[in-house]
Amino acid sequence: ATPRTYSSTVHKAAEDRGAEVVGMDNNALFGEVLYALPFGEAIARKLLTDYRVVIIGVDDPTIAQWIANRELVTTGTGIETDSESLAAQIGLLKAIKDYDLKRIISFHSRVNRAESFTSDIRQIMAWISDEHRPSGTLRADFVSGKMPANKRKAKLDQLKALSTDERGVLSNARCLSEGVDVPSLDG
Questions:
Q1: What is the CATH number of domain 61-176?
Q2: For the chain (length 187 residues), average pLDDT per consecutive 10?
Q3: From CA 152, how far away is CA 117, in angstroms rounded?
Q4: How many Å apart are CA 35 and CA 60, to the nearest integer?
Q5: Is the pTM of the predicted complex or chain greater than 0.85?
Q6: Domain locations in the chain?
Q7: CA proximity to 109, closest of 57, 22, 179, 175
Q8: Helix or strand or coil: residue 114?
Q9: ∠ CA 41-44-50 to the nearest 5 degrees?
Q10: Is there a contact between 97 and 129 (Cβ–Cβ < 8 Å)?
Q11: Cα–Cα dist 10/39, whole Å
């Protein structure tokens, strides 16, 4: 996201390069703040939907190196993928179980990564140990900015309409982002 204001360090670096940066804290250009709505208050007033960010940590240096290099791995059960994707999928499945997550949207830089994440995660769920496997059925799909709007809406509606024993993962690339309203997932 673009910063609303800039630090003195940024101003100094810009000045050293002969550039000018202007932050929205410049009242002469932008005027006074008309109204401020803190993030927490927006959630409390149900203007924004609360969400959870889960960060995956790896403490084994060898595995961390494999992930950093996106080494190709095979599970022995027919799953062949890069180690970064495998780690993300295992981490997500563990988070679904640990935090009882129901609806998940994953963000990917490329459409093919979103699509393969979706197809592989179902196989990974069958492969991982019961200790980390979420209960219920996993529905997984993907959307991209290249899809017609009615197809994207149908997939979002499916994510909202999960039964009580279902979990849903919707992977996306260049489609859903910060500030995009997804009313079917509110609440």
A1: 3.40.50
A2: 69 86 82 86 80 81 87 85 90 92 88 90 90 92 88 90 92 70 53
A3: 17
A4: 48
A5: no
A6: 8-36, 61-176
A7: 175
A8: helix
A9: 105
A10: no
A11: 25
